């Protein structure tokens, strides 16, 4: 081993929420690890992104680093009201007395991803897990005995196991020869964050609002969701909209004024446009069962139903669990099987989650004449039949079911 080669029993590529969870989950199981991250420590992580965090995700984080799940709950908020409009008319409005349930971890919490990541960084610091910044993984060479990794800072790493949590453009995925396949959403979505310092758990009027064919957005679908410190505004483009023009500051200020009111136009904090990919790697492990993919390195989902980070966290936890058992295994076959089981479970879960997010996307894109008609009939009936309004309220987020496989999270 040369002097600039470092050895670790397990390494993680990527300091996104999934990579940080993986490192904490390895540490919790007594496995010494470190994170290799491409970006510098003072990077900007823009946008609210994963605001909807399931209770199950918080429980995993609490289990692997006591205090972490509760910190997200303390900083987040639970909106009590679900409201839906259809072409300017209210079709559903329900406020829950106890929206989070009765336990100390609520059913969900809403806070910007950057805050979640800051808590994870603090947890890594407390656990003494190092992040090597500006150390992008460039090559991954696996063998039956372990993995050699080269990083952009000129270092070489030897490890027994590598978790690839390096996001959608994953180098680790490419290096093990895994390939993404799947589809892309037909139309773009514009997503913006609007700052509002008054929004916290005690703010009056905390509601999640979906508006079908909103007149204020020239007939486009609009979703408005509160999180601690602001609102997320999500506008579904028409097929012939130019996403770049739609996401320009000038156009978005007009949308914000018309949808939220004049006082919010100066509070636009972040705007982005997306065509959502629904793709999955053809394998989550390398041929030697030494490299494991997790989170967006393994699958990309449309965000309706909030299955992205909420499935990446169980990927990471289960990858860490498989590695901990494999490292202690007395036979190679047992170690091999543990990693294979991880892949089998999480590939099936991803398939299921992509299907669920796909149903939400299909419903929203609304080309199917039966779906279009069902929405119109439900809106007509909503005044007399609450179930019709409830269906309209629920459908944009896809089915609620979890993958039919035991997992440490919901998804
Ligand atoms: C608009 C929007 C809304 C969303 N809403 C939700 C939601 O409500 N709930 C939810 O659960 N999910 C949501 N998501 C999804 C969520 O944001 C992602 O699932 C999550 O960020 C994925 O985390 P990750 O760690 O896998 O990848 P990333 O966050 O992309 O992190 C990957 C990390 O790897 C690093 N990296 C890249 N290449 C290398 C390399 N070669 N070597 C080392 N490091 C590397 C990157 O710099 C980055 O730090 C949303 C996403 C979007 C875009």
UniProtKB/TrEMBL annotation:
Record key words, sorted: FAD, Flavoprotein, Monooxygenase, Oxidoreductase
InterPro entries to which the protein is assigned, alphabetical: FAD-bd, FAD/NAD-bd_sf, RIFMO-like
Superkingdom of the source species: Archaea
Region annotated Disordered, chain positions: 392-411
Single GO MF descriptor: oxidoreductase activity, acting on paired donors, with incorporation or reduction of molecular oxygen, NAD(P)H as one donor, and incorporation of one atom of oxygen
Cofactor(s) the protein needs: FAD
Species for this entry: Natrarchaeobaculum aegyptiacum
Keyword Flavoprotein: yes
PANTHER family: BINDING MONOOXYGENASE, PUTATIVE (JCVI)-RELATED, TRK SYSTEM POTASSIUM UPTAKE PROTEIN
FAD-binding domain location: 9-331
Lineage: Archaea, Methanobacteriati, Methanobacteriota, Stenosarchaea group, Halobacteria
Protein name in UniProt: Monooxygenase
């Amino acid at each position: 081993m040369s002097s600039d080669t470092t050895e670790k029993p397990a390494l993680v590529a990527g300091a996104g929420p999934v990579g940080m969870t993986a490192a904490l989950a390895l540490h919790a199981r007594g496995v010494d690890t470190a994170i290799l991250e491409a970006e510098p420590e003072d990077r900007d992580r823009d946008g609210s992104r994963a605001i909807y965090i399931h209770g199950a995700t918080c429980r995993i984080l609490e289990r692997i680093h006591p205090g972490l799940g509760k910190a997200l709950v303390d900083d987040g908020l639970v909106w009590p009201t679900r409201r839906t409009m259809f072409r300017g008319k209210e079709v559903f409005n329900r406020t829950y007395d106890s929206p989070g349930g009765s336990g100390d971890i609520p059913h969900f919490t809403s806070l910007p991803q950057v805050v979640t990541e800051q808590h994870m960084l603090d947890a890594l610091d407390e656990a003494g897990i190092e992040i090597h910044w500006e150390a992008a993984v460039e090559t991954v060479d696996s063998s039956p005995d372990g993995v050699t990794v080269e990083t952009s800072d000129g270092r070489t790493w030897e490890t027994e196991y590598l978790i690839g949590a390096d996001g959608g453009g994953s180098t680790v995925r490419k290096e093990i020869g895994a390939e993404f396949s799947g589809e892309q959403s037909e139309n773009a979505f514009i997503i913006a964050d609007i700052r509002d310092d008054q929004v916290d758990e005690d703010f009056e009027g905390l509601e999640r609002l979906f508006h079908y064919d909103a007149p204020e957005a020239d007939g486009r679908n609009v979703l408005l969701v509160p999180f601690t410190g602001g609102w997320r505004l999500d506008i579904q483009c028409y097929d012939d909209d130019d996403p770049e023009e739609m996401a320009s500051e000038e156009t978005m200020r007009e949308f914000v004024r018309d949808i939220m009111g004049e006082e919010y136009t100066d509070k636009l904090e972040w705007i982005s446009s997306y065509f959502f990919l629904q793709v999955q790697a053809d394998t989550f492990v390398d041929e030697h069962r030494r490299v494991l993919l997790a989170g967006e390195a393994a699958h990309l989902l449309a965000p309706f139903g909030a299955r992205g980070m909420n499935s990446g966290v169980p990927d990471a936890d289960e990858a860490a669990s498989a590695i901990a058992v494999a490292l202690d295994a007395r036979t190679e076959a047992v170690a091999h099987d543990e990693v294979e089981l991880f892949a089998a479970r999480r590939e099936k879960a991803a398939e299921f989650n992509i299907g669920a997010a796909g149903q939400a996307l299909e419903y929203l894109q609304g080309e199917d004449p039966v779906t279009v008609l069902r929405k119109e009939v439900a809106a007509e009936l909503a005044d007399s039949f609450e179930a019709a309004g409830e269906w309209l309220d629920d459908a944009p987020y896809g089915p609620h079911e979890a993958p039919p496989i035991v997992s440490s999270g919901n998804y």
